[in-house]
């Protein structure tokens, strides 16, 4: 895989179920002193028909932002290239002409060749932009599609009745603010200070399921105009392997629940219940989403069918501590998620070397 021709997909997919109680990970808006949790409409099958329900959710944008922050941190630990904005967690990704100007990059790109060279340069200089993609607003827009795919975390359909939203009452109480000194200072500023402030934060609890996919094959290669390695051939293989390694390490923190907002005061009660991951070589394969306790067994069945149909090799990885989860007889669940991630990393690196 060290040349300029990318052949055969090395594709990672995983889905997990987590019990998340009392979380405020993705707030949508504030109406007065009421801070609302994000909610989405979903179709569920109940009593012989489909009905619409509004449930708590965590957006794919929120999850993707956290993943890319962890990606930057892990890349820096290995001494890999990360641009200044991504180091700070400001994922503008050269989407501003001011950044192009400060970095002395061309912003009047008018040809396909120039667009290709700009994609190549940016991709080489930042792991986050290589894996997370970018869009540069030049005259000929330079676009790199994200190598990872993620969507909303929503309540598992089988456990939809265990999902709820509830407003929690809070008060900021500062009696000193009612004293003469503070009131006079406030009057001079033309403001009114109050000794207490009442506010509500809407929290959600649910058995959430999330899914994530990652295309390792095209890491380190351009894609907009033509396929070409972004590093010299003698360096390309090692850079790609290192970037693949940090991509998996960042995923570890994501699945462990280290994402979202308001965690300093609303750190959720987060427990990873079960997970299935797949590494496919040859064709992309996405595991079944964790909407039921049968999702691991269903994934195994589908992987075997894909292998018979296309010859695609699919390696599966299982972690399950949830009661009544259906585990195929030929599956060997890992004792810990950490053990699973270590083995998955080794297998991906081996596949990329092949």
From TrEMBL:
It comes from the Archaea. The gene is cas7a. This is Type I-A CRISPR-associated protein Cas7/Csa2. InterPro entries: Cas7/Cst2/DevR_sub_I-a/Apern, CRISPR-assoc_Cas7/Cst2/DevR, CRISPR-Cas7/Cst2/DevR. Signal peptide: none annotated. The lineage of its organism: Archaea, Thermoproteota. Keywords: Antiviral defense. CRISPR (clustered regularly interspaced short palindromic repeat) is an adaptive immune system that provides protection against mobile genetic elements (viruses, transposable elements and conjugative plasmids). CRISPR clusters contain spacers, sequences complementary to antecedent mobile elements, and target invading nucleic acids. CRISPR clusters are transcribed and processed into CRISPR RNA (crRNA). GO terms for biological process: defense response to virus.
């Amino acid at each position: 895989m060290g040349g300029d021709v990318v052949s055969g997909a090395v594709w990672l997919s995983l889905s997990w179920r987590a019990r998340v109680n009392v979380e405020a990970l993705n707030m949508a808006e504030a109406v007065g002193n009421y801070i609302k949790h994000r909610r989405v409409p979903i179709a569920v099958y109940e009593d012989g028909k489909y009905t619409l329900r509004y449930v708590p959710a965590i957006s794919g944008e929120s999850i993707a932002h956290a993943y890319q922050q962890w990606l930057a941190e892990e890349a820096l630990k290995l001494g890999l290239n990360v641009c200044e904005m991504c180091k700070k967690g400001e994922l503008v990704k050269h989407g501003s002409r001011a950044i192009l100007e400060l970095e002395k990059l061309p912003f009047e790109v008018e040809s396909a060749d120039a667009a290709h060279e700009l994609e190549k340069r940016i991709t080489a200089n930042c792991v986050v932009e290589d894996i997370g993609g970018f869009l540069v607003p030049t005259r000929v827009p330079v676009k790199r599609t994200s190598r990872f795919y993620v969507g909303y975390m929503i309540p598992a359909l089988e456990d939809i009745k265990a999902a709820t939203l509830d407003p929690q009452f809070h008060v900021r109480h500062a009696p000193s603010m009612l004293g003469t000194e503070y009131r006079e200072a406030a009057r001079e500023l033309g403001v009114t200070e109050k000794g207490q402030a009442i506010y509500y934060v809407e929290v959600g609890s649910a058995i959430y399921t999330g899914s994530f996919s990652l295309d390792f094959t095209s890491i380190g290669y351009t894609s907009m105009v033509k396929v070409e390695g972004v590093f010299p051939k003698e360096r390309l293989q090692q850079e790609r392997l290192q970037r693949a390694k940090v991509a998996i390490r960042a995923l570890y923190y994501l699945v462990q629940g280290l994402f979202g907002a308001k965690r300093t005061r609303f750190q959720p009660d987060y427990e990873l219940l079960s997970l299935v991951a797949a590494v496919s070589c040859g064709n992309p394969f996405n595991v079944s989403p964790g909407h039921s306790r049968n999702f691991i067994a269903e994934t195994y069945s589908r992987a075997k069918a894909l292998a018979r149909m296309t010859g695609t090799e699919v390696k599966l990885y299982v972690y399950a501590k949830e009661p009544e989860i259906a585990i195929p007889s030929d599956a060997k669940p890992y004792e810990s998620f950490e053990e699973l991630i270590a083995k998955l990393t080794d297998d991906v690196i081996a596949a990329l070397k092949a």
